[in-house]
Amino acid sequence: MNLYTERHGLRKPITRTSEISLEVYTLLLDICQKYYKNLTHIFKIQQHYDFLNEDYIEFNRTLFEKRMAIKIPNIFRDKHGYISTPQFNDDYDQYSLIDLIEYIAQNIKDISEGWNNNRYKNYWYIHCLDTTNVFADFQNEINEIFKEAGVLFTLTSRKIIERVVENTPLSPEIETEIHQISEPGTRELMIDAIALYKTPNPAARQDSVEKIWDALERLKTYYTNLDKRGSVNKVVNEMSNAKSEFITIFNAEFRALTDIGNNFRIRHHETNKIDITDHRHYDYFFNRCLSLIALAIQYLN
């Protein structure tokens, strides 16, 4: 739903960020708590109503909290040990909140609930169903907050949180082609590199770049019946359709990326390597290497 100032271009652009502010944390946690009862199939407690001699099921909050203390130990808790919203100046771990969102997403199930009797309302019951249609509602509510707050994360249909990467050549089509690479070592390195690249924690950027450079080096030896130089020449020749101008361009790009991998702290960690201190530079290196690999794999036999 677009409001008046959005429809008429009167609102300042939202600042895009990878930081979950206290306000956004509060909204996301409220959504999570709203869907706790959809975990009743895991955390249930059986109650008994003596007057009607009937049993019924409730969500076991105590059991849930004990399990989360083991599963997500660093998430913010109040003085009673319950998962809670941080207050002003409290330290909190935003990635632990992401853990909670993913846990709910991956375990959420539909329920049927209500009063046992609409007139007397003796007790409130929960019936656990074996379907997961409710996930779509949970996903939409989480992603709506991410989008409105400009947080560069999204809860995917695979029920994991990924960062939203802007200005990247990575696309579903490229990912499909990568999964179809016949050489298993190159394929696995590329899949790992992309998974790390999408991880919300910026600390994973270095690992993603290291993996994709490993994939580049593996790609150079794609044709195992040739030595490394011969294999690279064959890859470049096929990419270039044997046209000399493109052979020159792609040879230069392979050499440039090799030099980057050798001179910067990507694949090697000696003290004389150039440190990469700005995570946006990791994005640049990743996307540059990806562009060459994504083109090359379209021509591999």
Protein architecture, described:
This protein is 49% helix and 9% strand. The chain is mainly alpha-helical. It has two domains: 4-155, no CATH class; 166-296. Strands 1-2 form a two-stranded antiparallel ribbon. The mean pLDDT is 94.
Cα-to-Cα separation, first versus last residue: 49 Å
Q: What is the averaged pLDDT score?
A: 94
Topology order in helix (H) and strand (E) letters = HHEEHHEEHEEHHHHHH
The number of helices is 11
Order of neighbouring strands in the sheet with most strands: 1-2
Q: How many strands, which pairing sense, and closed or not: the largest β-sheet?
A: 2 strands, antiparallel
| Helical coverage, percent range | 40-55%
The count of strands amounts to 6
Structural class: mainly alpha
List the helices and strands and how they pair.
Blueprint: H1 4-7, H2 22-34, E1 44-49, E2 54-59, H3 61-71, H4 94-107, E3 111-115, E4 124-128, H5 134-149, E5 153-155, E6 161-163, H6 172-179, H7 184-198, H8 204-220, H9 228-239, H10 244-263, H11 279-296
Helix pairs in contact: 2-4, 2-5, 7-8, 8-11, 9-10
